Amino acid sequence: MDDSSALARLDRRVADCRACPRLVEWREEVARTKRAAFADWTYWGRPVPGFGPADARLAIIGLAPAAHGGNRTGRMFTGDRSGDVLYQALYDVGLASQPTSVSADDGLRLYGVRITAPVHCAPPANKPTPGERDTCRPWLVQELTLLRPTLRAVVVLGAFGWQAALPAFAAAGWTVPRPRPAFAHGTRVALDGLDLFGCFHVSQRNTFTGRLTAGMLREVLRTAAQAAGLP
Predict the structure, then answer these.
(1) Is there a domain that residue 17 lies in?
(2) pLDDT tens digits for 16-55?
(3) 1 domain residue, yes or no
(4) Which of 53, 97, 144, 179 gives the lowest tally of CB atoms within 10 Å of its CB?
(5) 205 in a domain, yes or no?
(6) pLDDT tens, position by position, 166-207
């Protein structure tokens, strides 16, 4: 089985997961009740797998799907304000085929980039519990293991993702420094041939207040793409 087939199989297994009762109940309740603006949508309502090619040289790790974004569309960072900011920046630096991501069948392609998260289900109030984070970690470990042959750089969005990702990198075979490096925007850590970058999350709280500007995001993505050897 080639890497593409193995990753597709992993994605299907992720989408069938029911390991966390609170998250299962929440994501399915949101899918039933919907938001008025999306009343005509059939919500995905399942765990959201990663998105992007199996031979990605750059990965982006977020937090978890949004209740009316990824939980609705079935694709990471698709259909919400955070995704609007992220995909526009990816397009601006030449890593995405279009600046918007509205549905899983909108034709968007990523160039050498894979987007994933440490928690695959939409959590209440966008806050997974530590137990839910740890239960979901094996999925990220398996995904990183499959990506490892080509992966050269990773951008982690936010402190939660950073704290969740470091143990996953260790479990996938990378040597993580001790003490573990602290999260900060713009930080860069070398892990056995992999450059790890920290970036403030593309949440509305950060983008609306100017804590994370479009220019700041583009700078991190551009630097990470160069480290990954992407054009």
Answers:
(1) yes
(2) 999 999 999 999 999 999 999 999 999 999 999 999 999 9
(3) no
(4) 179
(5) yes
(6) 999 999 999 999 999 999 999 999 998 999 999 999 999 999
**Domain of 43: which CATH number?**
3.40.470.10
Give buried/exposed letters for 72-91 (b at 16+ CB in 10 A, else e).
Answer: bbbbbbbbbebbbbbbbbbb
d(C-alpha 188, C-alpha 183), whole Å: 9
Domain limits for position 143: 6-228
Q: Which two tokens stand for residue 199?
A: 């970036």
Q: Domain total for the chain?
A: 1
Domain annotation covers residue 28: yes
